[in-house]
Amino acid sequence: MIKKENFVLSIVKFAFREGAALTTPQASTEITAKTLAVVEAWREAEGPLLPILHGVQEEFGYIPNEALPVIANALNLSRADVYGVMSFYHDFRERPAGRHVLKLCQAESCQAMGSDAVAEKLRKLLGIDFNETAKDGSVTLEPVYCLGLCACSPSAMLDGEVIGRLDEGKVNEIVAEVRA
Amino acid sequence: MTVTIYVPRDSGALALGAEKVAKAIAEEIDKRKLDARIVRNGSRGLYWLEPMVEVETANGRIAYGPVGAKDAASLFDAGFLSGGAHPLSLGDPEKLPFLAKQTRLTFARVGIIDPVSLDDYRAHGGLAGLEKAVKLEPAAIVEQVTESGLRGRGGAGFPTGIKWKTVLDTPGEVKYIVCNADEGDSGTFSDRMIMEGDPFVLIEGMTIAAIAVGASKGYIYLRSEYPHAEKALNEALAAARKAGVLGTSVLGSHHAFDIEVRMGAGAYVCGEETSLLDSLEGKRGEVRAKPPLPAHKGLFGKPTVINNVISLASVPIILDKGATFYKDFGMGRSRGTIPIQIAGNAKYPGLFEAAFGLTLGEIVDEIGGGTANGRPVRAVQVGGPLGAYFPRALFDTPFDYEAFAAKDGLIGHAGVVVFDDTVDMLKQARFAMEFCAIESCGKCTPCRVGSVRGVETLDRIVRNIEPEKQVALVTDLCNTMKFGSLCALGGFTPYPVMSALKHFPEDFRPHPMQEAAE
After folding, report:
1. What is the DSSP letter of B291?
2. Are the C-beta atoms of residues B165 and B142 closer than 8 Å to each other?
3. B376 — contact with chain A (CB < 8 Å)?
4. Out of B36, B47, B154, B339, which could bridge B308 as a Cys pair, Cβ 3.0 to 4.6 Å?
5. 221-240 in B: which are within 8 Å (CB) of A?
6. Are B222 and B260 in contact (CB under 8 A)?
7. Is A149 touching B (CB cutoff 8 A)?
8. Do B439 and A145 touch (CB under 8 A)?
9. H/E run at residue B39
10. Which residues of A touch B226 (CB under 8 A)?
């Protein structure tokens, strides 16, 4: 087993070589250090890539490009491997989201309860389409296919908080909250 | 004596304001200096009454619902701590017809106990199955599960005991138990309710599976859309480890077993068992070709039991009460009970656990009460986005794996989504194809390309471009997808599409108004 210090050092060197050109050295150092801390936490785990990507996204709000070589080197993968995994999953973002993230369920149960009309109204009120972020950076609107709240459709999730039986009143509350 | 008040922590209840209700009740207790405590239970599954608050009185539990935060003061004024009369009073919850008519085996404790209290779990019959299992030979446990007739509740309906026996018979130093908690089907929420309302029953079921096949490590692959389930599971796992239910010596036996929760990342296809395993390994969640079966070469190439949440959560009662007890419920080759989830446009949406054999009409019209808005029911989709749409004409179909297959449908994970007469079945068929295109893992061509072509073809019907030709084309395409896809995503997408075409052909015909306008 590699000693922890040596391991960290080798990754830092590697990351600088791979990622430094893309950003300022200072930002890159910070991303590298924080990514390494996440990687370290999962070093002993089996199949650690998804938890690491979740951890990095929790840290930065997205997966910075500079984090990929750090993860790749630590797990002995190619950068393409890590990118391939990251880009496969809907949850992982390559760019920061808005200050609020609104996920609106668009699956069958919610369709049966008028989710199309709710989506239409929210798109209009927020001035954005699905998978877009408002110009002022206030909110990102995303479709989601089932939140398991099918007995209180239509449903949504705002910053991790669940909302059921969306109606006009609740839609207006959501808009007011993200604009606040 | 301290009075116990139950306010659900279930996501469905939270989505309807349970957190604010709990806070308002806590403030009233404080303000009135009362001797009462709040327990955050699971949901009883009567979602039109959520948030449903219950009070433990001298005469048993009394329910109130749906309770809003603004109702808290009036409930206390009405003396609800002793079950006082109030417009929201529902009386004894067990006597509500929706609950009284159920056969709750797997969901026996959900909504009743404190989900993360191991003492509460034990006091309500928990761990009895595991206590028996640790004294049994692995083969005897597998035999009981096989004998019970339990079939995979995730959707495929494969006999659980046979899966376990294959893993038991496969030599290996390391074996895994993987719980598929990637409940992605719209209209289903039973896994979530178990994990939030009685996580110990899942832990117990997985531990029994581990002893049965000789596994030492378990993973729960949980979808990221379920943060509240994650929290409940991790609290329960910590309690289970502390009490020695998990760890190096399960209940003092020579078996070692521990469980870890791993979060998915929003890919529907990861509910398919082989892509779930790849995802757990840290790869793209692409479907594997079978064979090899996961039972032979599963997680990290090791023999692996991979079962759905409800399958595993049904095991403790089988071990506790015996295979015959469980088998005596049900019909034909569908044995035991099934938690039916009534969703969409239903008057009484919720979870209804019953023996197999209820007809679809009984479920939709009697139990579900028809639509929420009072309009006629036109179609119900059974079994999630890959399940068929059933018209009223097929409402006599009994809820049974074989009976549904005979009508070109599937039970799937037992979600029933109700649609009223305003539903446009062409739009629903198009959505099925679109969903498949969004969620396809991309490994096989029929699913990856077929779904996109399917959307295009159906769009041509919408635009009235040679509709009859398009119908023929989509039928042919569905045939290719059904028989040529690697997994159920591409293979079953034809079910909603073809059932919509077959039972609601009028929605696929040229629009007379549009024609007249042209």
Report:
1. S
2. yes
3. no
4. B154
5. 224-228
6. no
7. yes
8. yes
9. strand B36-39
10. 148
**pLDDT at residue B170, as a whole number:** 98
Long-range contacts of B299-302 (CB under 8 A, 24+ apart): B299/B176, B299/B178, B299/B219, B300/A46, B300/A47, B300/B174, B300/B176, B302/B172, B302/B174, B302/B175, B302/B176
Contact A149 B186 (CB under 8 A): no
Task: Tell me the pLDDT band of B314, cut-offs 50, 70 and 90.
Answer: very high
Interface test with A, best of B98, B225, B373, B418 (most A CBs within 10 A): B225
Sign of torsion over alpha carbons B413, B415, B416, B419? negative
Do residues B222 and B262 make contact, with C-beta atoms less than 8 angstroms apart?
yes
What SS3 class is residue B197? helix
Cβ atoms of residues A123 and A175 within 8 Å: no
What is the four-CA torsion angle of B191, B194, B196, B198, rounded to 10 degrees?
A: -160
Beta-carbon contacts of B321 under 8 Å, excluding residues fewer than 6 positions away, are none
| B298 near A CB under 8 A | no
Q: Which residue from B minimizes the CA distance to A161? A: B15
* Contacts of residue B407, Cβ cutoff 8 Å, sequence gap at least 6: B388, B390, B394, B397
Q: Which pLDDT tens digit goes with each residue over B23-56?
A: 999 999 999 999 999 999 999 999 999 999 999 9
Residue B46 DSSP label: B
In the 3-class helix/strand/coil scheme, how is B108-123 assigned residue by residue? CCCCCCCCCCHHHHHH
- Measured in angstroms, the CA of A47 and the nearest CA of chain B are apart by 4
Closest partner residue to B15 (CB to CB) among A53, A146, A152 is A152
- Name every chain A residue with its beta carbon within 8 A of the beta carbon of B184: 145-146
- Domains (range + CATH), chain B: 3-100 (3.40.30.10), 118-326 (3.40.50.11540), 329-420 (3.10.20.600), 425-517 (1.20.1440.230)
E strands of A68-171, at which residues?
A: 100-105, 132-133, 139-144, 156-158, 161-163
Q: Tell me whether residues A151 and B349 touch, CB distance under 8 A.
A: yes
Taking CB atoms and an 8 Å limit, are B15 and A163 in contact across chains?
A: yes
Give B57's contacts (C-beta < 8 A, 6+ positions apart).
B3, B81, B82, B83
User: Is the pLDDT confidence value at B282 over 60?
Assistant: yes
Segment B302-309 mean pLDDT: 98
CB contact under 8 A, B372 and A46: no
**Interchain pair B431, A108: CB under 8 A:** yes
What value of ipTM does the predicted structure carry?
Answer: 0.95
B485 and A CB contact within 8 Å: no
Query: Is there a contact between B418 and A112 if contact means CB atoms under 8 Å apart?
Result: yes
- Give the chain B residue nearest A84 (alpha carbons): B284
The amino acid at B282: G
B421 touching A, CB under 8 A?
Answer: no
Instruction: Say yes or no: B435 contacts chain A, CB-CB below 8 A.
Output: yes
3-state secondary structure of B152: coil
One-letter amino acid of B468: E
Taking only the tens place, the pLDDT of each residue in B365-377 is 999 999 999 999 9
Confidence of residue A77 (pLDDT cuts 50, 70, 90): very high
- Residue B187 contacts A where some CB pair is shorter than 8 Å: yes
Contacts of A157 in chain B (CB under 8 A): 225
CA distance B358 to B355: 8
Chain B residue closest to A93 (CA)? B265
Nearest C-alpha of chain A: how many angstroms from B339?
14
* A119 CA to centre of own chain: 21
- Tens of pLDDT along A100-112? 999 999 999 999 9
What share of chain B in percent tops pLDDT 90? Answer: 97
